[in-house]
Write a structure and sequence with these properties.
With about 350 residues, the protein is an alpha/beta fold. The protein is built from twelve helices and ten strands. It is globular and about 60 Å long.
Length: about 350
């Protein structure tokens, strides 16, 4: 009897140990998956660890550049293995180039001339050149335009001397361009009364007679300039100084046809440059990463070309290397050579 009882107790003890082991196993499995987890925990960290998440610095939300950058970012995320991009609204060129230089962005939009100032250490970048910046490709055109009232005695850029002139927001790409333009005509901020204000405020101030002229970097017939020229009589000043174009090779001469703006019935020559997409050797992205980014953007153009009418018309593969004034990134060179495009020597590092 005692022997049977001992056997029974031993069997009960063994069953108890098995039940405890199963309970502990279930508890550990639930802890590893987390509450409400839908996939095994070991898969998610591996996936996150393989993705490089980058910011694409664009511009303000009102223009063509923000939607273009957002759409291109979606294309990158959808097609470039291991890279997820997010388009971010910014103050444009100056902020974007600083973000690239500091390693806080992977991609950024910039006026060609501002990227040139930064790379070659001109104007505000003197003594602090951003030699890590690299171009990837060209996008839409940008135009340097100077407007004054039609009845003004201002006929040329030199006539701005002694006048109150809106030059763009302080430290912006447009303001740097305004300063370069004045310099080419022998003027500085000591010779004018510069007003640092956004372009929307500048056009209002010109209409209200508070300033004598505005210097802006805008697309032709942008909403702000169309509204300005349709509500007051204005003149568009010619910019034909060869020294300006020689000193700032990112610009080329462009003739605005008569009738482009209401009331301006003569052809006017002004500077034109490109908006370019840039990368950086400080971004943490490899040459292969930039190759893949450029490749998927151009091979999936249909996904982003409709982001704006100017984008669809002007951002074309055949023109992707035009009007760039800094070296191309090696990853971009690899892609364009791969599809048979000739790379100008000036764009090679």
């Amino acid at each position: 009897m005692k022997k049977s009882l001992a056997i029974l107790l031993a069997v009960i003890f063994l069953f108890s140990l098995a039940a405890c082991g199963q309970s502990n196993s279930n508890s550990q499995q639930q802890t590893s998956q987390g509450e409400g987890a839908s996939a095994p925990a070991e898969q998610q960290p591996a996936q996150s660890g393989n993705i490089k998440r980058i910011t694409f610095g664009t511009a303000g939300t009102a223009g063509a550049l923000y939607p273009m950058g957002v759409a291109m970012s979606e294309t990158i995320t959808n097609h470039a293995n291991g890279i997820a991009a997010t388009g971010e609204a910014t103050a444009a060129s100056v902020e974007n180039l600083r973000g690239l230089h500091q390693g806080n962005m992977g991609l950024a939009i910039s006026q060609t001339e501002v990227a040139s100032f930064a790379y070659y250490g001109k104007l505000d970048y003197e003594g602090n050149a951003f030699t890590d910046i690299r171009a990837l490709f060209s996008t839409i055109y940008n135009y340097l335009q100077v407007f004054a009232p039609a009845n003004s005695d201002i006929q040329t850029i030199a006539d701005l001397k002694g006048k109150t002139v809106a030059v763009g927001a302080a430290g912006s790409g447009g303001e740097l361009a305004a300063r370069a333009l004045l310099e080419a005509y022998g003027l500085s901020y000591d010779d004018v009364s510069p007003q640092f204000m956004p372009d929307s405020e500048a056009t209002s101030a010109l209409k209200d007679g508070k300033i004598a002229a505005i210097i802006v970097t805008h697309p032709i017939n942008s909403a702000a300039l169309t509204e300005l020229t349709s509500t007051m009589d204005t003149k568009l000043l010619p910019i034909e100084n060869d020294e300006f174009y020689a000193n700032y090779s990112a610009y080329s001469k462009y003739t605005v046809p008569a009738g482009t703006y209401t009331g301006i019935d003569v052809d006017v020559v002004i500077p034109r440059s490109r908006i370019i997409v840039c990368g950086s050797t400080n971004s943490g992205l490899s040459d292969d990463d930039y190759y893949n980014i450029v490749k998927v953007i151009w091979e999936n153009r249909d996904e982003w070309k409709g982001s704006n009418a100017s984008v669809e018309k002007q951002v074309i593969l055949e023109h992707a290397l035009e009007e760039i004034d800094i070296p191309l990134h090696p990853g971009a060179i690899r892609y364009f050579e791969e599809i048979g495009m000739e790379i100008p020597d000036a764009l090679r590092q």
